[in-house]
């Protein structure tokens, strides 16, 4: 709903915004400049505020919950290995002989190899086939693989299926991050990205309680308790994949659930905010130029440091709790509360990042510090003080899972062009897979009784360096903005573009 007296005023302003990418002759990119790249301070100017709110609320309800549900089951399926191993007195470890050498770490690690390699190619398929079909079918397929894991008879089969799981799961997180970034202006991105991520993490925390419940089926129909964990959770995943085929929305230019006025509003706001509403296809030349964008590699490093902590806790927390003296049942059930808690620091940090000017980097630093303090607490406090050590797990899980979506959203505010958004989300989340590999290797089974000292010290060191990296990037962005204000440089190919830090 446009307040201008002329009903076509906004359409005239967006005459260059072609909703059909196939007919677009001048796609925006950091190298392209022109009148169509003029950005506005007030992205909602000319629109009825009530119309803006109702439209974006409609987008929120159609986009974020479905993606959250898909990523929630993704997290459960990729991290339930540690819970399954702990079930029924390490029955899975005995059945598949995972306690020999580094077999459990290998089964954990192989997931990340195809997950990393296929991140960028998956973004091409996302645009070609559409989010609904690409992500929905991938979810169904990894659900089938999860069911098959429940019928593994040896550790080699388990490792092979885990690798296949990584093939299909490679599509979701970078695809979801890319999709969210294409719908929202920069000042709304952290809240949506964090809501999507943290709802998934919080609900997936209940996967521990569900895994314990399923493990009580031990012996039912001749199957061990750990097999029921994979079989039932895989069936749930297939169901969620089918639901996503019905309800997941696509990119703004393909949105069928919005009216033409609403679609125009969404695209106008994006164009005014960063002037990259038009789809621009990825080319070899663009990919080479993006590979040389150092700030994206720094964002990837930040994300990797956080995933070393988050994956290590996801895979090894039941074992860590067991070494703290908790029973087998409690070591699984006590996984849930810290993941529920992380909803609060994540959402509050995202609100500060979006609403307070100059707070994005500081919100990340605060959560990294919580991660460092929490890790030191649960690993170094006197073993007799279980409550204090368990409180450290709250801080560590809350800190790591709060700053990861902030890094993704910050990276998306620092770039232009949709092809670059797809590349950035794939690169950064691929490095999250590298963090998973590091966690799998650093947290060695032979050190379990000692509390995984190698993994703990590596986590502390990497995230201490991470604080320095975040602060340095913030001041570099401040310097580049000042240069742009003085006309000494152009950021992201647009003289009006400024970093948000």
Automatic annotation (TrEMBL):
Broad class of the protein's primary localization: membrane
Which keywords, in A-to-Z order, does the entry hold? Answer: Membrane, Transmembrane, Transmembrane helix, Transport
Q: Which GO terms describe its molecular function?
A: transmembrane transporter activity
Record-annotated Major facilitator superfamily (MFS) profile domain positions: 63-481
Residue intervals passing through the bilayer: 96-118, 130-152, 164-184, 196-214, 226-249, 296-317, 329-352, 359-381, 387-410, 422-443, 455-476
Database matches in SUPFAM superfamilies:
MFS general substrate transporter
Q: Where is the composition biased (Basic and acidic residues)?
A: 9-25
Q: Where is this region: Disordered?
A: 1-36
The answer to whether UniProt assigns keyword Nucleotide-binding to this entry is no
Membrane topology listed for this record: Multi-pass membrane protein
Pfam families from the UniProt entry: MFS_1 (PF07690)
Example GO CC term: the record gives: membrane
Localization recorded for this chain is: Membrane
* PANTHER family linked to this entry: MAJOR FACILITATOR SUPERFAMILY (MFS) PROFILE DOMAIN-CONTAINING PROTEIN, PERMEASE-RELATED
Q: Please give the name of this protein.
A: MFS transporter prlL
